[in-house]
Amino acid sequence: MTNKPLDSLPPTETLEIENGLSLVPRVRLNLTVYSSSQVVTKPIDEWKMKQTLIDFLKNSLSVPITVPEDDLQIRRLKDLKKRKRDDPVAFGTLFIRDLGFLNTTSKRNDGEEEEKDVKELEKKFLDWRKYIVEKMDGIELNIEGVKYKLNVEVPESDNFEATKKAWEEFYAFGSRGLSTRGRQEPDTIILRGAPSRWFAEPRVSSKPSMLVTHTIFSTFGKIRNLNVAEDDGLGKDANEDGGDLISGLHCKIVVQFEKYQDFYNTFKVLCGRSFQKQGSQLRADYEVTWDKDGFFRFSRNQPHEIVAGYGKQNRAVDLKIPYGAGSLKC
Fold first, then answer.
1. CA atoms within 13 A on the CB side of 61
2. Which pTM does this prediction carry?
3. Phi then psi for 128, rounded to 5 degrees?
4. For residues 64 and 130, is the Cβ–Cβ distance under 8 A?
5. Single residue among 153, 174, 208 that ends a domain in this structure
6. Do residues 83 and 139 share a domain?
7. Are 164 and 275 within one domain?
8. HEC string of 229-266?
9. pLDDT for 209-235, tens place per residue?
């Protein structure tokens, strides 16, 4: 666990922030399961699929990985009649949270040497993650005599290098008609999947609070604009089979930084980590993206969700923090 500057934080270390929250490292991989046969007569057995993958990680890698069942999620396609021939039969997500074995580099106190250590650890982490993907991608799994093929990839929200390349190309080759007015770099982060109660005022409300959220994200740099709202859409997107959804569990946070470097460092730290609350074993595996559509530029002209703690029904409220000021503008 560390409180070192963001630009010198290795990808395997935990960062403590405000409100009892920490950002804990992990690797997240998206899984897609295809049937090796064109004819599929029954849904895949999710539990047996999980056990097969857990055994593979424990027995088939250069460094054995033990993954708890809760960190491997398999979601099968239940209605096979709607499935086209080349469609997947299941989707999944794998979280690898125990990354301590990568911290084998001896720590040095000299500034230049410490920076070199961080870069070496970053390279080691990326090489190992690439190795895991290559070992798992394309393997054949035999579940109850039925063969399946597994596709594995790092999700976009966890791939900082690919995302950085994407925003560089976006601003280099045009911004889809948006006038940048000289600004050729992103500055706004969109985070979805954070528990609303972790960003709420304790003993006041379970809805996310603008002021609490501002306090938390001020850890990373000076904020220009902030918007926080309940986000029921994420749960609906993740549950295509239906089922009861409890609204208000998660929130969507949009934060615009004054400086590109603060945006850059924050985005890099958020990639490949999960929120954890002090005194709880629960982790929140959020999704993080960058804003290419001008959220704050157009937000005044579009209807938004309720922002918890401020405003009335169907009215968006943004937190405006002008340079050198701390006023709340609704």
1. 20
2. 0.81
3. -65, -40
4. no
5. 153
6. yes
7. yes
8. EECCHHHHHHCCCCCCCCCCCEEEEEEEECCHHHHHHH
9. 999 999 999 999 999 999 999 987 665
Last residue of a domain, one of 123, 153, 183: 153
DSSP β-bridge partners for residue 274: 24
Q: State whether 198 and 127 are in the same domain.
A: no
Residue type, 241: D
> 216 is in which domain, residue-wise?
156-320
Alpha helix locations (H) across the chain?
46-59, 111-136, 160-172, 210-217, 233-238, 260-270, 295-298
Mean of the per-residue pLDDT values of the chain: 82
**What would the pLDDT profile of 263-273 be if each residue is shown by its tens digit?**
999 999 999 99
Backbone angles phi, psi at 255, to 5 degrees: -130, 130
* Residue 307 CB partners (closer than 8 Å, separation 6+): 210, 227, 228, 229, 316, 317, 318
CA-CA distances (angstroms) from residue 207 to 233, 255, 285? 16, 18, 19
Residue 326, domain member (yes or no)? no
**306: in domain:** yes
Please tell me whether residues 306 and 175 are part of one structural domain.
yes
Residues 182, 219: one domain? Answer: yes
Reading the block at residue 6, the tokens are 């963001």
Please tell me the distance from the alpha carbon of residue 277 to that of residue 187, in angstroms, as a whole number: 27
Within this chain, do residues 169 and 313 fall inside the same structural domain, yes or no? yes
Q: Are 213 and 199 in contact (CB under 8 A)?
A: yes
SS (H, E, C) 94-152: EEECCCHHHCCCCCCCCHHHHHHHHHHHHHHHHHHHHHHHHHHCCCEEEECCEEEEEEE
The answer to whether residue 330 is domain-embedded is no
Question: Is 327 inside a domain boundary?
Answer: no
Pick the closest to residue 189 from 284, 255, 271 (CA basis): 255
Do 133 and 264 share a domain, yes or no? no
Sign of CA dihedral 11, 17, 22, 23: negative
Q: Find out whether 295 and 227 touch, Cβ atoms under 8 Å.
A: yes
163 and 137 in one domain? no
